[in-house]
Amino acid sequence: MSVPKHHRTSRRNRIQVLVLSAAAAAMPFSMTAADQPEPEKGDRSITEFKKEEDAKFQWTVVDDGVMGGLSKGKMAIVDAGVLRFEGVLSLENNGGFSSIRTGRFDTMDLAAHKGLVLRVKGDGRTYQVRLETDARFRGAMAVSFSADLPTTKGEWTEVKVPFKNFRGSWRGRDLPDAKFDPGKIQRLGLLLGDKKPGPFRMEVDWIRAYGGAKDK
């Protein structure tokens, strides 16, 4: 006896659903850097870690060795546009931080935005985003403005860091009266100083400013 046509179609649809479900289950949880969408409307790309950006930002490692500490960090651009920051944090000799930062660049005006958003894959530790403007301590030393950057171990996440969270300091000394002006950014950095000795590793796919005026 022949099977009615609508039954054959229904069975074929069920098989297609099962095949698609199995394929989806086999896919990795996180997307690769190449799979990521373009910035949302109102977002502004700061860096996507492409080769042509290296000359502009000139990232370098700055560890607590400048103060006698023993922490060791290193960085590299890998996987066609991912920044890898890794090393070992040490608390010996009054140390306790490892960082990377750009050279000073022409003033970046992000006053029309609400903050930064970073796509990161970390180790579960809380890092810091650090920014410098034209603000100076005692008229000469650059003030560092920092805000927390939490990570989820082994997973890519997009973390928003509002400009309102940034607080000023100079060499560990809090400067509560320092005013952060997102319209006058001159340096960008990332730092680990959570007082937990041991290895660390964080990858950054991109950094963008979010919350700008939406395109019409």
Arithmetic mean pLDDT: 85
Largest sheet: 7 strands, antiparallel
Distance N to C terminus: 61 Å
Q: How many domains make up the 3D coordinates?
A: 1
CATH fold category name: Jelly Rolls
Give the H and E element order.
HEHEEEEEEEEEEEE
At the first level of CATH, what is the class? Mainly Beta
DSSP helical segment count: 2
Strands in their spatial order, largest beta sheet: 2-5-12-7-8-10-11
Description:
The structure is a single chain. The chain is mainly beta and 216 residues long. The chain has one domain (31-210): Galactose-binding lectin (Jelly Rolls). The chain is 13% helix and 41% strand. The protein contains 2 helices and 13 strands. It has a 7-stranded antiparallel β-sheet with strand order 2-5-12-7-8-10-11, with no helix packed on it. Strand 3 and strand 4 (82-89) form a beta hairpin. 27% of the residues are buried. The model is unreliable at 5-11 and 13-34 (pLDDT under 50).
In short, what is this structure?
Helix content is 13%, strand content 41%. The protein has 216 residues and is mainly beta.
How is the secondary structure organized here?
Elements: H1 5-26, E1 44-47, H2 51-57, E2 60-63, E3 72-78, E4 82-89, E5 98-101, E6 115-121, E7 126-137, E8 141-150, E9 156-162, E10 167-170, E11 173-174, E12 187-192, E13 198-210
Antiparallel strand pairs: 1-13, 2-5, 3-4, 4-13, 5-12, 6-9, 6-13, 7-8, 7-12, 8-10, 10-11
